[in-house]
Here is the input.
Amino acid sequence: MRVAHPVLLLASMFTLSACGAIMHGARQTIDVQSSPPGAKVETSPGTGTYTTPTVLDLERKNSYVLTFTSPGYTPATFNLHNSVGTGTVIADVLLTGLIGVVVDGLTGAWYGLNPESANVTLQRTASGVGPTEIHVAITNPHSGTIEIKSEGASVGVSVQKTK
Here is the structure.
């Protein structure tokens, strides 16, 4: 029975070696959306180029700048900041001592990225590709009255009467 206690103690030390690494790992998923959808997103530091909507799997130890681009829209940026999770650090010190502090500090597991999601609305440029909406209403088809409204750039219209 005395042999089981040192083995159990040793196993629990390795199991609790780093609270942050065990609780949530060194990476975090970030949900990324844009309006319009289909925008390209690049991360800095670079992890690749993605198309919205997407989910990014990022290291907690870094802060990131997301750059959104789409043809006809002004590029936009979004900042993700990393910050130390106080509860994780306290748990490391109290439960694991130096081992947990070293492991979570080196892997970045005691950090968290904020905010946990990114939703960016891109602004159309002045040279955007056409209006965002065109409304056509035929008020009286027999008299040929047609009303056309557009949002944004003006729209040229040609109406021909057919028999």
User: Anything to note?
Assistant: The two ends are 101 Å apart (CA to CA).
